[in-house]
Amino acid sequence: MISPVVVGAAPLSPEDVVAVARHGACVELDAAAMARVAASRALIEGLADDPEPHYGVSTGFGALATTFIAPERRRQLQLSLIRSHAAGTGAEVETEVARALQLLRLQTLASGRTGVRPVVVETYAAMLNAGITPVVREYGSLGCSGDLAPLSHVALAALGEGSVRVGGELVPAGAALAAASIAALELQEKEGLALINGTDGMLGMLLLALHDLRVLLDTADVSAAMSIESQLGTDAVFAADLMALRPQHGQAVSAANLRALLADSAIMASHRDPAVCTRVQDAYSLRCTPQVHGAARDTADHAALVASRELASTVDNPVVTLDGRVESNGNFHGAPVAYVLDFLAIAVADVASISERRTDRALDPARSHGLPPFLAHEVGVDSGLMIAQYAAAGIVSELKRLAVPASVDSIPSSAMQEDHVSMGWAAARKLRRGIDGLARVLAIEIVTAARALDLRAPLAPAPATAAVRERLRAVVAGPGPDRFLSPDLEAATDLVISGEIIRAASLEGRFS
User: pLDDT tens digits for 363-418?
Assistant: First the structure.
């Protein structure tokens, strides 16, 4: 049973977002937060009666911000805003992304800085707890003013319009709300804007990506250790004093992991004597593993810092300030989040690239130091893991394309009122694809390195890498004649994504 996540008492943590978005945790609303919501709503209602125009309360939106809207037309204004902005197209985004959208917008609504009525906050919480997930489309957001189209699809569902998923089944939003005894919202002044002005989509995807990337970077250290060991590389270059000469934090962490993973390896011990091993230096893909993996770790740390600041933010326009003013602002611009999404895509591509190079070395008899070509059972008859490397190379090529920044592009919109946009949603979508690709490249390296370790018998690998190999062998058979390879790669990928690989490495108490 997953504990409920309290919304409104303090900023949500990354773990809170993953729990609700991915694992279906319920939410609870903080009572003090709801009191703040009611107080800020009273301010908005006062402005609604003011004959002076106030943006989003008594005016149109975007390029129509100078158009005054009469009181009797304002509810229609809010409804029209949501309907017109729910203009997404393409495939549905993943359920966890839509739930992250719902949760992060709920957090902003519960801040008391948006001016919505308490019932709006309560409706969003009730939808999450009932498992009502709005259908959100792949395309439509420019990342400024926030993720307008995706958030409008969420808002539309709260109005009882559009489609939602309940238990995976596609149903009309109105029917889903009725079945859960949730009254469809009827929006009043300012509320439509408050539901759609935010960076919630790109932030939600950043938080999910960071959660997954932490697992993958640990896994990359495991797969690298298996490759270094099976290719008769040295661990001397990972010594703590050498790492201290360049005090990059992530590099030190990865090097420490490699030292622990390779400890007590009979394979490593077999070639420590200079009379046995005449190689002066390993190739970069082996020797520079901590430098590359460490840089990716540091990049993830920077992205996590930006994400933590965004989680502590109230993003709306206009916003109700702490002293009761209602002010226009530009905090909805997604640049801070978009930049780090693009930065992570670069790191993901490079970690996958060095992994693929280690895999390729294991398959090449000119560089593998005694292993058979492509680790084949019967060379010439069998192709071994030749095409697994092709798959890794194809993915790495795709990841390099996905590493091209989205945030450097900007296409003006809304009659040049929104003349510079972040493209943060697009940056997040391509990062999600990149994370999946990295997991598959690492799985291919693990399958390759495990077979290479088998072929080093009777020499024994380190206890930690041996534990990983044995966990893999529960779903992927060892060396032998060629067989249907795709199921092996899919099974290995499942172990990577689930964290089973790093848990197996921890069984011997040598890796954390």
Answer: 999 999 999 999 999 999 999 999 999 999 999 999 999 999 989 988 777 767 67
Residue 464, token pair as written in the block: 């930690």
Q: Which domains, ranges and CATH numbers included, belong to the chain?
A: 5-197 (1.10.275.10), 206-506 (1.20.200.10)
Hey, what amino acid is at 243? M
Distance CA 333, CA 337 (A): 9
Cβ atoms of 133 and 156 within 8 Å: the answer is no
Q: What is the mean pLDDT of the chain?
A: 93
Phi–psi pair at 249, nearest 5 degrees = -60, -50
Q: What is the pLDDT of residues 319-341, one digit of tens each?
A: 888 888 888 888 888 899 999 99
How many other C-beta atoms are found inside a 10 Å radius of the C-beta of residue 64?
A: 13
3-state SS, residue 171: strand
Q: Is the distance from CB of 110 to CB of 121 less than 8 angstroms?
A: yes
Contact 331, 320 (CB under 8 A): no
Q: Whole-model pTM above 0.90?
A: yes
Element (H, E) at 90: strand 89-92
Band (pLDDT 50/70/90 cuts) for residue 64 is: low
Decide: 480 and 377 in contact? Cβ < 8 Å: yes
- Phi, psi dihedral angles at 115 (to 5 degrees): 85, 15
Helices (H) and strands (E) in the chain, counts: 20, 9
Question: Would you give the distance in Å from CA 408 to the centre of its chain?
Answer: 20
DSSP letter assigned to residue 373: G
Which two tokens mark 20?
């609700």
Confidence of residue 509 (pLDDT cuts 50, 70, 90): very low
Q: Is 275 exposed, middle or buried (0-12, 13-18, 19+ CB in 10 A)?
A: exposed
Q: Hey, which residues are catalytic here?
A: 55
**Is the previous residue joined to 318 through a cis bond, with omega within 30 degrees of 0?**
yes
Contacts of 200 (CB under 8 A, 6+ apart): 100, 101, 104, 105, 108, 146, 147, 150, 151, 315
Contact between residue 114 and residue 315 where contact means Cβ atoms under 8 Å apart: no
String of b and e for 163-194 (b: at least 16 CB within 10 Å)? Answer: bbbbeeeebebeebbeeeebeebebbbbbbbb
Predicted pLDDT at 66: 65
Query: What's residue 508's pLDDT?
Result: 43
Please name the residues in contact with 145: beta carbons below 8 A apart, sequence gap of 6 or more. Answer: 62, 196, 197, 317, 332, 333, 418
Long-range contacts of 391-396, Cβ-Cβ distance < 8 Å, separation of 24 or more: 391/440, 391/444, 391/489, 392/352, 392/355, 392/356, 392/359, 392/440, 392/441, 392/444, 392/445, 393/356, 393/360, 395/352, 395/356, 395/437, 395/440, 395/441, 396/349, 396/352, 396/353, 396/356, 396/437, 396/441
